[in-house]
Amino acid sequence: MKILVTGGCGFIGSNLVRHLLAEASHSVLNIDKLTYAGNPHSLADLADNPRYHFSQTDICDGTAMTKLMTEFAPDWIMHLAAESHVDRSIDGPGEFVQTNVVGTFTLLQAARSHYESLEGEAKQVFRFLHVSTDEVYGSLGVEGLFSESTPYDPHSPYSASKAASDHLARAWADTYDLPVLVTNCSNNYGPYQFPEKLIPVVILKALRGEPIPVYGKGENVRDWLYVGDHAEALHTVIAQGKIGETYNIGGNNERQNIDLVRLLCSLLDELRPREDDRSYAEQITFVTDRPGHDLRYAIDASKIKTELGWSPRQDHTSGFRKTVQWYLDNQAWTEKILSGDYRLERLGTSSS
To answer: 260 and 224 in contact (C-beta within 8 Å)?
Structure first.
């Protein structure tokens, strides 16, 4: 297959590109604008792979997207390009609307034009996979799970923009018969994650001897999905999923933020002890909660398991151990990011 991946230099995208090239003889065209979170260093070792191609292009550029689709003629499109950090969406919502909504619209139009030009088997195999988040469903109480039929109730500019893009993808399927599939995933973690998200922030703050910030009382609950498992799930959905269907992808790994932070600290205590032999957990500091912080997300991933046979490989601790070890072994990758504009500062404190 020839697969066009948008946002392939991002966290999930780079792990997906690696998976696609490693698991089959696919050719991949990675389209990435290379904003702050698009890191070409994450795929630098693939530069000489003849099945890997890269184009620094904005998905909002309709002319460029149409040209790339004509030249590459993808069999599958896997759309991951998005502004994705809730805190950044609070400070600057306009970029999220532009990339996540306008960008998805532009990509859908280019994909539609490409699809309508296809004939025969090429038209039969074509798929458009729109990758989204469980945050579109809003917040859960102490019980219950998000299913594919849960009504949308987004609470942040980020989740609202992703909800809008989900609706666009489904509308293009219904209106123009574009063969669309949609996935909604829980919180990802693992290698190559930009260090503004909770897990890399905890690891890097701990190693620097700085306070480890935890919002509110750390009671917010998330379902954590190892990024390698997610990449495998996305490949499964686009290869085997039913056109027009939505699949929720979860890690079966719910925990409170404070419990996760303490786990990461205990893993660091084991793998890279502090010089004074005290626990990294002593660096935990509770900070004012962010505006509109949803209490709990949890995914019911039974549909993708029952219909497509996918379930996460990592358990409640194995993926976190892999992740901590990766950051310990790849500090040069992190330092290339932190030597730029981003300094692990807090974002998203404004409610106005």
So the answer is: yes
